[in-house]
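WARN no homologs supplied; continuing
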Amino acid sequence: MTLLRPPPTSLLDAYRGGEFQPLYVTTVQVTGGEARHARASGCVRSDDGALGIVLRLPHEMGGEGGGTNPEQLFAAGYGACFHGALNLLAARQGLAIAACSVHVTVAFGRDPVDGRHTITADLVVKLPGHDRTTAERLVRETERICPYAKMARQGIESTVRVET
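OK structure emitted
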């Protein structure tokens, strides 16, 4: 049995290059499934085969439920990234935070700005055994380095193109 290890804290080292330097790239394909609508009956598959899930519209939005949805996937990614960055920072600072947890609530709803839809995210970081000052400092530092937190705060570079 192979013992899983955390990534090296060298991932926290600042990059001084002039262009984006990818460290990992992945691609997923989303198809519409039975309802021909990804939110209602879609399938998600990663290019390496490690991810394969069924999407379902939640009951709260008039769907059948019984599967995951984009909001849960976003919450999972955000929480995992934040938890990982938090642990790397703590390790670099010699802090033991083995019992820490990150709880992410994502809401899909109406946007009062344009009348369409938007997503909000709320994170609660639990750091038992640490004083509030230390915990808040560590979380604020994590907010500055976590790519998902940066994306939520600043946006993300994104392109959309059509192929026929």
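The longest strand covers residues 101-110.
OK
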